[in-house]
Amino acid sequence: MRYLRYAFLGALAIILVSVSVANRDFVTLRLVPEDLAGVLGFNFAISLPLFVVVLGGIAAGVIIGFVWEWLREHKHRKEATVKHREVRKLEREVTKLKDKTNEGKDEVLAILDEATAK
């Protein structure tokens, strides 16, 4: 399975490098359209190779997706934490009750009573 993953990553790397080499032409990215920039009074533009724009867009999409899922799953993580705390509290209570019922008894007899109770 590990070799299959390495083969997939290698093929992906070859594809990304070939796309990057094929799209080295520069493109201009503008913050706002030229007509609107004249009205607003500022015009921010940057020239980047096309592969940087494409790969940057993919990377930004992946990061936004991860953050979106992390925020969406917050309620599930919170519920799991609450349940985990409740289980730990109940386990401590059971241990305390076992110690209280076996108080004053011989350890061997307490173990036997506990085994027969199950």
Automatic annotation (TrEMBL):
Entry coiled-coil feature ranges: 80-107
Membrane-crossing residue ranges in chain numbering: 46-68
Species of origin: Falsiruegeria litorea R37
Residues in the signal sequence: none
Pfam families in UniProt: LapA_dom
InterPro entries referenced in this protein's UniProt entry, alphabetically: LapA_dom (IPR010445)
Protein name: Lipopolysaccharide assembly protein A domain-containing protein
Organism superkingdom: Bacteria
A cellular component term, taken from the record's GO annotations: plasma membrane
Protein keywords: Cell membrane, Coiled coil, Membrane, Transmembrane, Transmembrane helix
Residue ranges occupied by any Lipopolysaccharide assembly protein A domain in the UniProt entry: 45-94
